[in-house]
Structure formats: C-alpha cells, structure tokens
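Model it.
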Amino acid sequence: MKKIIILALLTLCSVAGFAQEDVGPHTIMQNHNLFSTAPNSGIGIKGGVNFASVHGSDKDKYGSVNSHTSFHAGVYAQFAISELFSIQPELLYSRKGFERQDSVYRLDYLEVPVLAVFNITDNLSVHLGPQVGVMMSAKVEDEEIDLEPYHTFDYGAAAGIEGRISRFRLGTRYVHSFGDLRKENDSGNSINEDVKNGVIQVYLGVGF
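Modeled.
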C-alpha cells in the first residue's frame, strides 16, 4: 500500500512536468509553472482541525458513535494550468477516528489528495478530487492496537472551498472514504462491514 502512495507522488511529478511545458506564444496559459507569480500556483504548508467520524449502514454495530476532534498537517503544491484552473496535490498526516461511550478510537493516516481547483474569483476557489491514504497507526484511548483487523489502504473523494488573502489560505473540506474500515472482527474472522471514515477539515495554509 505504501508503494501506491509512492506511485501517486511520481504521477504528480509527471503532471507537474507536463504543466511546465511551453505550449506556444499565443496561449493564455502563461503562468503555469510551480514558481509562477500566478495566484493559483505555488507551494506551501497547511494544517488544521479534523472533525472525524464514521458512516455506513453497519456503524450502529459500534454503538452510539460521536465525532472525534483532532488534526491534520502537511504540504501542498499547486500547478496552474490556466488562470481559472489548477491541479493541487498534497501530502498530509491526518488523524481520524470516532468516539464511543467507553472509548476513543484514533486512526492516523498518511494521505495524498489530488485536487482540481476551480477559481471562482481571484480570492475564492472550489476544490474537488480523489485521494488515497495508508493507515500508519491506530489507538484505543492511548493504547496502540494491532492494524491486522483493519483495511490499512483507504481511498475516497474530497470537496471543499477555499479563500485566499495574500499568501494565506483559509478553507474547509469534506473527505468521504469509499473503503471499508475493517476486514476482520475482534475474533479474527473475515467480515464484510459497511463502516467508512468521514471527516470535515478546517485549515489554514501559508504559501511561499
């Protein structure tokens, strides 16, 4: 699964190289390389709050489940294709999970979203795209637990909106996982359980 993350990053590098090619003197895509002065191009860091929970038809098997407030942080690179459209890959460390009456589940992921960015105005944009992730660790309360019962590879889609003032970015995003959380029950038997991650993110980014 970690190889999939590496493959995704290599693909992003290929896309970046394509976006930096010269497409001719009459094109409107003049500021589309990584270090362009275009407002929808550049690199930066970001981080913020996660409001994580689970969804799916079988989530009631976990009892009364509430959201878990945690964090995410990482880096992003935005490649302008035109003045209105760009591609934004990110590498994030994101803590998800949920809370029950008797315990808190914390699930730590390394994630790679690849987002299409549509500029509504110079300072407001909409983001939409897929993402993949690998579960790096899991804890119940503060005790680390075995990852074997879990699907450590996750995939899904992200959508959000972002405002930009100078080099600062403030945004919110919803990430909806399509992959089931667990593959085995507590007894080690295989299960087909419709329980998936879902998280609302609120973040602040700084571009360079």
